[in-house]
């Protein structure tokens, strides 16, 4: 309704679970073109996004009067710049609806920074062998002040909640440090983490594909390596 009232040429939403659900509906209502997972906003009529599981970039144009974009979280860093834009409140008259949203609950664990905003992330995969072993991941995350994450197979089988899933079909992250233990490095996972500034991979398999994307690799058992990293982090904090 706000876009129609103001004659907006672009509607932008976050490429998260909420944005991916709402943006297509908005595009249909506005009869607008939709580009999902944008990493760069319009320049000369083009937007840029990852394709082929993050192996390439595509420049996409929209030929409708209004365009709807979902922007990948962390695609842009926060800049300390002032602007003269103003925020206007708008209340839409939506009439009779079948469903009504009454509120939202935060899915983040207590004390942890949400994954899209996290500068330090500790993640693990099926190499942890079960949810009962996740304590060693949480211990390292707590010692570093990091946020925990997981691979898609881990969330699919219910070891960890879906909001911790990073990858092509989950959350895209760009932390300063990403530590991955027991994750082989499927293309779909790499697409969601390959913009991390520093990647540390821990795996018992020296041929794991993830090592090719790593800045630092440790060939070893996560059950031995993670506690040692935790102890070292605690020493630095003391």
Quick one: biggest sheet? 5 strands, mixed
Poorly predicted runs: none
CATH architecture of the largest domain: 3-Layer(aba) Sandwich
Determine Rg (CA atoms, Å): 20 Å
User: What is the third-level CATH name, the topology of the largest domain?
Assistant: Rossmann fold
- Globally, the shape reads elongated
User: Mind telling me the CATH superfamily name of the largest domain?
Assistant: TPP-binding domain
The mean pLDDT is 87
Helicity range of the residues?
10-25%
Counted beta strands: 10
The proportion of residues in beta strands is: 15-25%
How many alpha or pi helices? 6
Task: Pick out its properties.
238 residues; alpha/beta; Rossmann fold; 5-stranded mixed beta sheet; 5-stranded parallel beta sheet; 10 strands; elongated
Task: Write up what this structure looks like.
- With 238 residues, this protein is an alpha/beta fold.
- The protein folds into 2 domains: 2-71, 3-Layer(aba) Sandwich (Rossmann fold); 115-237, Rossmann fold.
- 24% of the residues lie in helices and 24% in strands.
- The chain is built from 6 helices and 10 strands, in the order H-E-H-E-E-E-E-E-H-E-H-E-H-E-E-H.
- It has helices at 2-6, 17-30, 135-144, 152-156, 187-193, 222-237; strands at residues 10-14, 33-43, 46-51, 56-61, 67-71, 120-124, 147-150, 177-181, 198-203, 216-219.
- A 5-stranded mixed β-sheet has the order 1-5-2-3-4, covered by helices on one side. A 5-stranded parallel β-sheet has the order 7-6-8-9-10.
- Helix 3 (135-144) runs parallel beside helix 6 (222-237).
- The termini are far apart.
- The model has no long low-confidence stretch (mean pLDDT 87).
